[in-house]
Each structure stands twice: as C-alpha cells, then as structure tokens.
TrEMBL record:
Coiled coil: none annotated. This is Alpha-ketoglutarate-dependent dioxygenase alkB homolog 3. InterPro entries: AlkB-like (IPR027450), AlkB-like_sf (IPR037151), ALKBH3 (IPR032854), Oxoglu/Fe-dep_dioxygenase_dom (IPR005123). It is an enzyme of class 1 (oxidoreductase).
Length: 291
C-alpha cells in the first residue's frame, strides 16, 4: 500500500502528510506529541487552558428529558393510546373501509354536490378564514372557534348511506356530520380537540377519508407542571388514505389534540367526513366552549 493510501485508511481525511524529515514510529507522529496531548489548543478555541479544566463535568441542574419518538399507526386495529385519570384513549383504524372503486365515485360526487363554503372563525376578537372548506349536517347548529354553523337537515342521500354504514360497523349512532374539504396540501386544520360541551363527555368521533392521503397527527396534552409546553409529549401520526375509517373514542378528546398540518409538496384534494353526536348546549353555557 502506498504511504498516501495507508494514511487515509489509518487517519481518515484528517491525516496530514508528514513534515519533511519527521520520524515517528508510523513515520508521521510529531516528536512533541506527548506534551501537546494534555493541552487543548488553537483551533478548538480553548487557548492554553488545561484540558482537564475545559472538560470538567457539571451535574445538570434539571433532569435530562428525552423527546419521545413519534409513533406511526397504519395497520388496521384497535389502539389504546393512553390510560390516564380521565380513562382510556382509543383509536380504531380501518383502512379500506370503502373499496377504492366506490371511494373514487363517492369522492367525485361529494366534491361536486356538497354546499362547500369557507367559515370565518375568531381568535381573541380577530376574524380569520379557515384554511379549508366545510359544510355541516345536523338538527342543531354547531359552534366552535367562536362562530356558529346553522342547523342543516338537508342530508345528501350519499351521506345518509355512509352514516348508516359507519353506524353499523362502529355500533355507535351519530346525528351530525362536519365535512372538511382540503383543496390541496396548503389546506389544513390546526391543533385542537373536539371537546365542546355540545359533543357531550367522552365523545366518539368517526372520521372517513376520501381522496389524497393526508397525515393525521395527535399529540398528548402536557402535564400541568409543563405549563402548556408540548416539547416532551407523546406524538402519533396516522396516514389517512382514500376509503379509511378512523374512530376516536374514550378520553381521546380530553387527553389528546389532533391536526392535519399543511404539507409543502403536491397534494390533491381530500374530503374528510367527521360523524358526531351533538346535544343541545347546556343551559346558561356559552356555545362552543368546554364544560
Ligand atoms: O381532516 C381530518 O382528518 C380531521 C378533521 C378534524 O380534525 C375535525 O373536523 O375536527
């Protein structure tokens, strides 16, 4: 092996060619190596400070916490995602609940025939348009984000059929439906829980997806001592593809938030149908808020 190749093998790209006339055991170790080895110098920025001082170990004042690795759920099944004082939070995932062929024509029909519109919400008194289109079906109005969608009993016949199919498979009943249309990857829904008082305690929400796949993300509510800091909370992502049914049950709306984030690559349109049960707002309660 040539001198040059051997240096590259032994020392990688940091190896410097030996200075002329140098004669260490390998042919390139500088003669003052021993005296250099206990002083950190020059390029490391410690000047002439002693290495033993520079690398002194200090016990961290706060316990070191790891950011939990995000879990991905993509197989059909029932998943208990947490057990807490509010109870069990559970997801049921059913990819292919609607076959691709059926889902294709349903998607086109609903895209064309539902009365999609842009809802205006309020945050700290400021109006903003939702970054997606929606429509609502139910005997009662639905209030969230400080704005109300009026009751609408004119169910599209296909939505009635889908509601029955979802009810039969989930053994739940639903009296309302919020439809979301994400026109492309820029459309989204931010972090929230479906926890308005009108949904009742521990609501089951059935979510049916048609169209392009989008990632449905969940993050656990942080403990009170973290003061709303979500850095260390558990996270789950669930890719929701064409024809997939997802059920959120138990304490999921108490203990977790969910979102569909914007994506910065091409995404086609996606429709999401979220079947819910709405109750009259409790007396004296401000609509659209938690109990
Ligand atoms: O589009 C989705 O999958 C989620 C919709 C949603 O979070 C909601 O309607 O509350």
């Amino acid at each position: 092996m040539s001198d040059k190749r051997q240096r590259a093998r032994v020392q990688g790209s940091w190896a410097k060619p030996p200075a002329k006339g140098q004669s260490g055991p390998m042919g390139f170790v500088p003669s003052n190596a021993a005296s250099r080895s206990n002083t950190a110098s020059g390029s490391w920025g410690f000047g002439n400070q002693k290495a033993s001082e520079a690398f002194k170990f200090h016990q961290p004042t706060k316990p070191v916490r790891d950011v939990p690795k995000e879990k991905v759920i993509e197989q059909a099944g029932v998943y208990e995602i947490s057990h807490g004082p509010s109870g069990v939070s559970r997801l049921r995932l059913w990819p292919g609940f609607i076959t691709t062929e059926e889902a294709d024509w349903m998607f086109s029909k609903l895209l064309e025939e539902l009365p999609w519109s842009k809802k205006t919400n309020y945050r700290q008194g400021e109006a903003y348009d939702e970054p997606r289109l929606t429509c609502w079906y139910g005997e009662l109005p639905y209030t969230y984000a400080h704005s109300t969608i009026p009751a609408n009993n004119q169910w599209h016949p296909l939505l009635v059929t889908l509601r029955e199919a979802v009810e039969q498979s989930s053994s739940c009943t639903f009296n309302s439906l919020l439809c979301n249309l994400y026109r492309n990857g820029r459309d989204s829904i931010g972090w929230h829980s479906d926890d308005e008082a009108s949904l009742g305690p521990k609501p089951t929400i059935a979510s049916l997806s048609l169209g392009d796949t989008r990632v449905f993300s969940l993050r656990k509510q942080p403990p009170p001592e973290d003061n709303g800091d979500y850095t260390y909370v558990e996270r789950i992502s669930v890719p929701l593809s064409h024809g997939t049914l997802l059920l959120m049950e138990g304490a999921t709306q108490d203990d977790w938030q969910h979102q569909v984030a914007k994506e910065y690559h091409d995404r086609g349109p996606r429709i999401n149908l979220t079947f819910r049960t709405i109750h009259p707002e409790p007396e004296g309660h401000r609509p659209g808020t938690k109990i």
